[in-house]
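2.7 Reproducibility. Because tokenized structures are sensitive to small changes in the input, we list the exact sequence used for YoaK family protein, including any N-terminal residues retained from the expression construct. No trimming or masking was applied before prediction.
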Amino acid sequence: MNTQSKQENEQHFLTCERDWVYFTLIAVAGFWGAYTFLLRGGVFCNAQTSNVVLMGLALGSGEWSKGLYYLVPISAYVLGSVVSELAPNPIKHRFAIRWDTILMLIEMVAMLCLGFVPESAPAQICQVVINFLASMQYNTFRQAEGIPVATTFTTNHIRQIGVGLAKEFHHRHSPDKSHRKKLATHAGMLLFFATGVIVGTIFCHLLVGRAIWVTIIPLGVVFIKLLHADLTTEKSMVEQKPSGH
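Resulting structure tokens (single pass, no recycling of outputs):
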């Protein structure tokens, strides 16, 4: 009975909602973080809080041109959200393939192109591209098997680990351990992000700018699995929205 219930629960989620997809994507984001920090201007492009802070610091210091520059990456992030909101319906209706799948292809092509950008080129080229991609990914992949997560940064995962540990304390004498699934998911996301950063650092030292090509491999695995689901096992479910949308 328990096995049957587990199977039914697993079938409830689309392939694009599976834990392994989210673990893979956040590892790639960790790699991006290492890449942009070490090789493309010493910044993190996966989120925009730092850009807003730096813009405020520059404007507050009277450095107007420097401050207004930060509107470029911030605007790229906004544009990524706009595109990822508008694109899903037209794509699935025209091609019978989910936006999530197309996004993986877009990211793979972008990573291939970025690998050809020389280290002497303006760092802003790679920064804006990754800002745009990170925004689309963050807005597209929202829940891992029903649990709200982020695939591009770890702040909320760290907070949720603390919440989960508090619940573990509160429920230490209770048979209710339902919180552990959520705790394990957030811990896994943090672990995979850190792993991506470590692997990214190693390859950045070995391959320099072309290190970004390494991320095409995990993105390719996700793309193939999502495409296979779109064309076969989940072909009749193309209208079903992933959790959180």
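The longest strand covers residues 143-144.
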